[in-house]
Write a structure and sequence with these properties.
The structure holds three protein chains of three kinds.
Chain A (H helix, E strand, L loop, with lengths): L1 H20 L3 H22 L7 H33 L11 H21 L11 H18 L3 H21 L6 H29 L25
Helix pairs in contact in A: 1-2, 1-4, 1-5, 2-3, 2-6, 3-7, 4-5, 5-6, 6-7
Chain B lengths: L1 H18 L4 H24 L8 H4 L6 H34 L9 H20 L3 H19 L5 H31 L9 H6 L6 H19 L7 H8 L2 H24 L6 H23 L5 H21 L4 H29 L15 H14 L6 H12 L2 H27 L9 H9 L2 H21 L1
Chain C lengths: L1 H17 L2 H14 L8 H10 L11 H20 L14 H22 L3 H32 L4 H5 L7 H22 L18 H4 L5 H26 L6 H25 L8 H26 L1
Classes of the chains: A mainly alpha, B mainly alpha, C mainly alpha.
């Protein structure tokens, strides 16, 4: 059982590396779907089935199935649909180039591993990979939001970030109770849904979805010139 | 029982709006009725809580303690007043669409109204939630349901504002979730319960390093939602692009709910950590004041000006709540700020309705055509800057007296800069000569009719201020 | 002990004799995927023998470097070969730190090939030379990262110690790390041997060539030597990969057999990859190589974690 959980965590880590280097949006979404599946399945493999009651175990399985459905299928499907309606396929000119992104993720991985060895957070018996993988995913998600231009890639980065946080909770064996976990899942689902709709509207209004070209709002407005009555 | 009703009545109404999609009058009536019912229930909850039939399973999820009741009544009152204003204001906006030369689309009414109602339900859930996990879920939900509301005037700018709001607030809330997990890591082993009462009870057993890390992430996360610098960057855009009523709710109610999250964490701090947390809150508060002071000078958009004033007051509130001795001043400041800021935003919405633009360099001398609105706006700006007999004056006075000398001096100077900047802009807007853009005649008449609710709010704030002055002098 | 030395000797001779089979196997696999019969597996032997009987034609602008380049490539490859620990026995010429000698012998061969290519004065060779150097810089990074991971794992600085460390009981512990290192090393193999997805060996368009462009002007026996040296290099790198993965505590005869089979399997794998992928754009190749370096670094971190946890 621990061996499978180690493989899942290694997949999680490699997903972060792959996301940093992926330029085709379909690949980014596929990587996020893979990561979501790992997030859903990981708690099942580290749970101590004998220790808890039958009801709690059933709740865990139900939650895992729900998370798998939402993070492994629904959300990637939503993102693919947003991709098609906005008619983008690639991230063409990222703010930070792909090789540099990969190297930055590796650098952060070094830091995360060192930090987690110094300040162990997980309860004893958890794989040594768990907390660093989660931290690396959180960093990679935030990095993708910052370093990429297209709005869809920012949504993908946010989803990645959320998955990292969820895995962190799972590796610390936090049990919030079914309702709160379900609430968190629902929130993420609706959020990505709303983001998808927003991307569609942005693509229609601006004819591009480059978030760094959205600069209509700002504090440095020039005073109006003669005869101009624009808003 | 009442807690459950308080949360679910707005949500049911929000769903019901979708059933009566095409009947405008019915939707507006539903909005007004729901907000009135909510106000009555929360008044009962706050003042006559013994009438509440409580169930123990319900206490596990929703509970209103003293702090919660304080926030609940304020939110409910404000939402009710804004809802009544909205009922009339929507009609005026729809008429304005026909008369303007460049009409931009409006958001479909049923989406707007159901968004408003769901917003109220989710804010109530934030206030009534009993543990940190549910608090997080509710705060995230408020982000989600308020995002479409920003898009009321459909334009490229509001779309951009909505995107920034969604992304920045979601990332911030994600950090808050991380902080909540770190809090769970800080709990002594074997304790999984994250309820406020429980955590506050065992707070002397929390591991200090983990709690510090958790508090930092929580401050970053909920501080983003609250508008503390340097996480406030979504606030000016979202508040200026959304219509008056939505800005009023965002400024007056939503920022308070995020503040509640931070306060709950502060309460749960172990006693030796409290000074660390207080210092952090004071530091971020002063930073917010600096940012607000910097950006209110020469601000060309009067709603953006009000948004930066919100940043300033959120900074002040952050400093106020971190000092235990002036806790009541903090509550009064919150009430006062919400009332006055809401009145200001509603009036600004009226001005925008009449003039069609928000730029202060294109507008001037509005007191001629929009007399009542101008008076209210000017009075509101004076009150929010702390001119007596505004209650803000009393609370700011007590704050500066309670701070150490250098911090107090810094706060005073920054408040002075903000006062100067705001009154300069507003004076030109209200009293100066006419400039390029003149208010539309028919729309001005409509805007003048919409002054009652802001007027009531300002009168309430004045009354609060008189009581405060009386208690000080 | 004697058996081991004999086996090591047989391993070296086997490499020298059998290495031209590898490109043949790759072409056969590609032909299989394309539904053709393809050239014979021993085709490279026939080509080398044919070329050795011919005289080389040199351009008038080429100088001494052009003459010595092919021979240097062969000599450095043979020297790299005899440093390897075949059949679980460290090379008699091995010493602590010979991994660097290994790497830089390869580098020396490459430098002189590049100089020989630029010596012809043709711009196609110059272009191929510059591309080759660019990718070589990145593969060196990957190779050193892999070597670093192996050094961490085995606490030894000689090739014999590094590649002969794994025993059959170690797979449980080091399984994931070996997989990561093998993938990173395989990328090095693909790049150094000029295979897809980095470089298409069958292309006839000079602007898309990397390695083939450098040898456009070679002919006769020099070209034969260059082909042989290239196939020997492929055998060497695939052997390094095989030795890294296979356990060292088996019977030497069986170990040598397994290593040979792994090398042949590696060439089949290269053939499969060549048949199913297209060449990456040149701008994407650095990203590909940096990705493999990242994999090797991640393996290093995992390794140090394992060691801290174990200790």
């Amino acid at each position: 059982m621990t061996f499978i959980s180690e493989i899942l965590l290694a997949l999680f880590l490699l997903a972060a590396l792959r996301l940093a280097g992926a330029s085709r949006l379909k690949h980014c979404i596929a990587v996020t779907a893979c990561q979501g599946t790992v997030t859903a399945l990981y708690p099942l493999f580290v749970h101590n089935w004998a220790e808890f009651s039958h009801d709690t175990n059933m709740q865990m399985i139900l939650l895992a199935l729900l998370t798998l459905g939402v993070k492994g299928f629904l959300l990637p499907a939503l993102l693919v649909r947003a991709m098609h309606t906005a008619q983008v396929k690639r991230e063409l000119e990222p703010l930070v180039s792909y090789p540099v992104s990969i190297l930055l993720v590796v650098l952060f991985a070094c830091g995360a591993f060192t930090l987690c060895v110094k300040y162990p957070v997980a309860p004893a018996g958890t794989s040594v990979l768990a907390a660093p993988s989660a931290l690396i995913a959180i960093f990679t998600g935030l990095f993708i939001i910052v370093a990429r231009k297209k709005a869809i890639t920012q949504s993908i980065g946010f989803l990645f970030f959320e998955n990292g946080i969820t895995l962190f909770g799972a590796c610390m064996k936090l049990e919030y109770g079914f309702l709160v976990e379900f609430g968190i899942l629902l929130d993420v689902f609706v959020l990505v849904f709303v983001m998808g709709i927003a991307v569609f509207h942005i693509s229609r209004e601006f004819e591009h979805i480059d978030a760094d070209r959205l600069h209509l709002l700002g504090d440095t407005m020039e005073p109006a010139k003669q005869g101009e009555t624009a808003k | 029982m009442i807690q459950l009703l308080l949360v679910f009545i707005p949500i049911f109404s929000a769903v019901a709006v979708w059933r009566i999609k095409n009947r405008q009058n019915r939707m507006r009536m539903l909005l007004a009725l729901t907000s009135l019912m909510h106000l009555v229930l929360s008044a009962v909850m706050t003042f006559r809580s013994e009438w509440n039939a409580d169930f123990s399973w319900l206490q596990h999820w929703l509970y209103a303690d003293e702090l919660g009741k304080c926030f609940l009544f304020l939110t409910s009152l404000l939402f009710c007043m804004v809802a009544i204003h909205t009922v009339f204001w929507i009609k005026a906006e729809q008429d304005a669409q026909e008369t303007r030369e460049h009409p931009e689309g409006l958001l479909k009414l049923h989406i707007f109204v159901s968004g408003l109602l769901a917003f109220e339900g989710m804010m109530t859930l934030v206030i009534l939630s009993v543990d940190f996990g549910l608090l997080w879920v509710a705060v995230e939900a408020t982000t989600l349901v308020s995002a479409p509301l920003i898009l009321f005037h459909r334009s490229a700018r509001s779309l951009e504002a909505m995107w920034k709001y969604l992304l920045i607030c979601s990332v911030g809330i994600g950090l808050a979730l991380f902080g909540t997990m770190l809090l769970a890591a800080a709990m002594p082993p074997g304790e999984g319960d994250l309820r406020f009462t429980h955590v506050t009870g065992v707070r002397h057993l929390l591991k200090p390093v983990w709690f510090k890390a958790s508090f930092i992430f929580i401050l970053a996360g909920y501080g983003t939602k609250m508008g503390l610098a340097p996480f406030h960057t979504w606030l000016p855009d979202a508040h200026s692009e959304s219509p008056g009523t939505v800005s009023a709710l965002l400024s007056g109610a939503l920022l308070n709910c995020s503040l509640l999250g931070i306060i709950r964490f502060y309460e749960a701090a172990p006693d030796e950590m409290k000074s660390f947390c207080a210092n952090l809150m004071v530091a971020l508060g002063i930073l917010s004041l600096v940012f607000a002071a910097f950006f209110t000078v020469r601000q060309l958009d009067f709603k953006r000006l009000l948004a930066y004033s919100s940043v300033e007051h959120m900074g002040l509130l952050s400093i106020l709540w971190s000092i235990p001795s002036i806790r009541d001043a903090a509550a009064i400041h919150m009430y006062a700020h919400s009332l006055i800021k809401m009145a200001l935003f509603l009036t600004a919405g009226n001005l925008l309705l009449a003039c069609g633009t928000r730029r202060t360099d294109l507008l001037g001398g509005l007191s001629g055509k929009l007399q009542r609105n101008s008076i209210l706006f000017f009075a509101g700006v004076l009150m929010i800057c702390g001119v007596p007999p505004s209650p803000i004056f009393a609370t700011e006075l007590r704050l500066i007296m309670a701070l150490p000398p250098i911090a107090g001096a810094a706060v005073l100077i920054l408040l002075l800069i903000i006062f100067a900047a705001m009154t300069h802009t507003v004076l030109h807007l209200i009293c100066g000569p006419d400039k390029k853009v003149l208010p539309d005649e028919s729309l001005s008449i409509q805007a003048e009719k919409l002054v009652w609710i802001p007027g009531v709010m300002l009168v309430l704030a004045l009354a609060l201020g008189m009581i405060q002055l009386h208690s000080i002098l | 002990m004697n058996l081991q030395i004999i086996m090591w000797g047989i391993g070296v001779i086997e490499a020298l004799v059998l290495s031209p089979v590898l490109p043949g196997i790759i072409n056969k696999v590609k032909a299989f995927f394309a539904g053709r019969k393809g050239p014979s597996v021993f085709q490279l032997y026939y080509d080398i023998i044919k070329l050795m009987k011919k005289r080389a034609v040199r351009s008038t602008t080429a100088g001494a470097l052009f003459t010595i380049a092919p021979m240097t490539a062969l000599i450095t490859s043979v020297l790299m070969l005899i440093l390897l620990p075949f059949a679980g026995k460290a090379s008699p010429l091995g010493f602590a730190g010979d991994i660097l000698l290994f790497l830089y012998l390869g580098g020396l061969g490459r430098v002189l090939t590049v100089c020989g290519a630029m010596d012809t004065g043709s711009s196609f060779e110059g272009m191929g030379a510059s591309r080759e150097c660019q990718f070589a810089i990145l593969t060196e990074g990957t190779f050193m990262a892999v070597a670093g991971a192996l050094m961490l794992m085995t606490r030894s600085f000689s090739l014999g110690g590094m590649l002969n460390f794994i025993t059959t009981s170690d797979y449980n512990r080091y399984g994931i790390i070996l997989v990561l290192l093998a993938v990173a090393m395989f990328v090095v193999v693909l790049t150094e041997c000029c295979r897809l997805p980095v470089d298409d060996p069958d292309t006839h368009l000079e602007l898309t060539m990397i390695h083939e462009a450098m040898i456009l002007d070679n002919s006769g026996d020099e070209l034969g030597i260059i082909h042989y040296a290239a196939s020997l290099k492929m055998w060497i790198l695939l052997s390094v990969e095989a030795m890294m993965i296979l356990p060292a505590d088996m019977n030497p005869v069986i170990l040598l057999l397994t290593e040979t089979l792994t090398v042949l399997f590696g060439s089949i794998l290269i053939g499969t990859i060549e048949s199913v992928t297209a060449r990456y754009r040149f701008l994407k190749v650095p990203q590909f190589l940096v990705g493999s370096t990242a994999l090797a670094f991640i393996a290093m971190f995992l390794l140090s974690l394992l060691q801290i946890q174990g200790a």
